[in-house]
Design a protein that fits this description.
By secondary structure, the protein is an alpha/beta fold. The protein contains seven helices and twelve strands. The longest helix is centred in the N-terminal third of the chain and has 19 residues, at about 10-30. The relative contact order is 0.14.
């Protein structure tokens, strides 16, 4: 087995940069075959995942795993790159994706009970003998007609504002204060955010209109924003997933 690792050293407020030498030392100690691809900018993991799958395909590599090492954003971009590649080459054999959670939020890891400590998570990956099938959300922007995918949550409104601001916060890349970037963004959004009108259309049912909505979220996980557990809704609607 060979692991193609997409590494985001900036994840977790540069925590990943400090942890990576330990991870690499463990891989070498165990004589694991791996290649490392380090992201250089936002969206780079999408390109790297596409390039890696192309290399694997041309080399006829049957025992390969693409590993995202970073936070939820690194995993998301890796997934997008893989989906984009298979959309172009649908007949190619699917390569499994592994996730080493060394970011700040790690909601995906919490939901799937992936250990949050790197050594236990790596041990789980290396001892995994069979890939599991997981649900991935898909959405369509009706204005631009673009399609997108998500592993965690897809939000419009307050939560999207918080994530947008947190990802652009100067604290995001801080080793000590990176995990607080979300909460500071929450406080700022509470002071400035304004509600909006929302139209919800479900096939076979009348359209619902919500005045002055605060947030609209479709979730694939029970938690969001660094482990914040989402409340269970009394009324549930059916959503088509891909």
């Amino acid at each position: 087995m060979e692991y193609f690792i997409i590494l985001n050293k900036c994840a977790g407020g540069n925590k990943a940069r400090l942890l990576w030498p330990k991870v690499e030392a463990r891989l070498k100690q165990l004589n694991i075959s791996y290649r490392t691809f380090v992201t250089q900018y936002d969206g780079h993991a999408v390109e790297l995942a596409n390039q890696i799958l192309s290399q694997i395909t041309h080399a006829h590599h049957s025992d390969a795993v693409v590993m995202a090492a970073g936070g939820d954003g690194t995993l998301h971009e890796t997934l997008l790159g893989c989906i984009g590649y298979y959309a172009t080459y649908p007949s190619e054999s699917k390569i499994p994706i592994a996730f080493l959670p060394i970011g700040s939020g790690n909601d995906f890891a919490r939901a799937l009970k992936i250990p949050l400590h790197w050594d236990k998570a790596l041990e789980q990956i290396l001892h995994c003998s069979k890939a599991a099938s997981l649900t991935v959300g898909q959405y369509t922007n009706l204005d631009t007609h673009d399609e997108g995918y998500f592993t965690n949550n897809f939000g419009i409104g307050f939560d999207a504002t918080v994530v947008h601001d947190a990802n652009r916060s100067s604290l995001k890349n801080s080793r000590y204060f990176g995990k607080f970037s979300y909460w500071i963004s929450v406080i700022n959004a509470l002071r400035t955010f304004q509600g909006f009108n929302t139209h919800v259309k479900i096939p076979g049912k009348p359209e619902d209109v919500y005045q002055n909505a605060f947030l609209v979220t479709t979730t694939n996980l029970p938690t969001s924003a660094v482990g914040l557990r989402l409340p269970q809704m009394r009324q549930r609607i059916k959503i088509n997933w891909t």
